[in-house]
Write a structure and sequence with these properties.
The protein is an alpha/beta fold. It has a single domain, classed as TIM Barrel. It contains ten helices and eight strands. The chain has an eight-stranded parallel beta barrel, surrounded by seven helices. Helix 8 links the parallel strand 7 (163-167) and strand 8. Helix 6 (123-134) runs parallel beside helix 7 (150-159). The longest helix has 13 residues, at 70-82. It is globular, with a radius of gyration of 16 Å. It starts with 7 loop residues before the first strand and ends in a 7-residue tail after the last helix. The mean pLDDT is 96. The protein binds 6-(methoxycarbonyl)uridine 5'-(dihydrogen phosphate). Substrate binds at residues 13, 34, 115, 190-191. This is Orotidine 5'-phosphate decarboxylase. Residues 7-206 form the Orotidine 5'-phosphate decarboxylase domain.
Length: 218
C-alpha cells in the first residue's frame, strides 16, 4: 500500500471540496495524498472521510503533526484511523513513547526534522537521535525529512531502511527529484500542484521529473 511508484504525494492543503475534487482526479496517477488542518478544521473527521471515500488506488496520509502526551496522541490517531487514513504523521521530538503508542494504532511516519529555515535552530540537532530512537518501533513505516535540505535526507537514509517522504518541492524551493536522489522514497508536493492551472498536468510533469531521478544506493 505504501510502496513507492510515481514517488509523488500530493499535499491537499485546500478546502474539503477542492481536496475531494483533486483526489478524485489524481487517484492512481500519484502514490498518495496528504490532508491536514485545512480539511480537518473545516469539517472535522468527516473531511478526512470524504477524501478517503474517493480514493481507490492512492493512499491517504493524515498529517496533524501529532505532538501530545502518549494517551492523547493515541486517541487522535485512533480518530484519524477510523476516518479512513492509511498512515498518520507524528512529530519525532516528543519522544519514542508517543511514537510507539501511535504506531500501535496505524502506520506512522515520524517527522525527523522540517523543511523551513527555522528548523535549523532546534529540530536539525535532534534529527539523527529521533531516527535512531524510533527505528526499532513496529509500526513506524517511515520518516519525514526535508527536500529543501537534501543533506538531512542523506543523514536519515544512512540510519534507516524505512521509507522517507520529503516535503519542500516547488513552492519552498527544492527541485523535483532532489530528495529522491538523496535517498527519499516520496516527495510531498502541495501548492505546485493545487495552485497549478492544470493540477493533472503539473502532477504528470513532476512524476516525469522524479522518474528520471536515480534513487540513492541503500
Ligand atoms: O508544497 P507546499 O510547500 O505547498 O506544501 C508542503 C506540504 O508539506 C505542506 O502540507 C506542509 O505541511 C508539509 N510539510 C512541510 O512543508 N515541511 C515539513 O517539514 C513537513 C511537512 C509535512 O508534510 O510533514 C508531515
Amino acid at each position: 500500500m505504501l510502496e513507492p511508484d510515481t514517488r509523488l504525494i500530493v499535499a491537499l492543503d485546500v478546502s474539503p471540496d477542492r481536496a475531494v475534487e483533486i483526489a478524485e482526479t489524481l487517484d492512481g496517477y500519484v502514490d498518495g495524498f496528504k490532508v491536514g488542518y485545512e480539511v480537518v478544521l473545516a469539517e472535522g473527521a468527516a473531511g478526512i472521510e470524504r477524501v478517503a471515500e474517493v480514493l481507490e488506488e492512492s493512499f491517504l496520509l493524515v498529517d496533524l503533526k501529532t505532538a501530545d502526551i502518549p494517551e492523547i496522541s493515541r486517541s487522535i490517531v485512533e480518530r484519524v484511523s477510523e476516518a479512513g487514513a492509511n498512515a498518520a504523521i507524528v512529530h519525532g521530538f516528543v519522544g519514542p513513547d508517543v511514537v510507539e503508542e501511535c504506531a500501535e494504532v496505524l502506520p506512522v511516519f515520524v517527522v525527523a526534522t522540517m523543511s523551513h529555515p527555522g528548523a535549523r535552530e532546534f529540530y536539525d540537532r535532534a534529527c539523527r537521535d529521533i531516527v535512531k530512537a524510533c527505528d526499532d518501533i513496529d509500526g513506524v513505516v517511515g520518516y519525514v525529512a526535508p527536500a529543501t535540505r537534501p543533506e538531512r535526507v542523506r543523514e536519515v537514509r544512512k540510519i534507516t531502511d524505512k521509507l522517507i517522504a520529503s516535503p519542500g518541492v516547488g513552492a519552498q524551493g527544492a527541485a523535483p527529484g532532489d530528495a529522491v536522489r538523496a535517498g527519499a522514497d516520496f516527495e510531498i508536493v502541495g501548492r505546485a500542484i493545487t495552485e497549478a492551472h492544470d493540477p493533472v498536468e503539473a502532477a504528470k510533469d513532476l512524476t516525469r521529473a522524479m522518474r528520471t531521478s536515480r534513487p540513492a544506493e541503500r
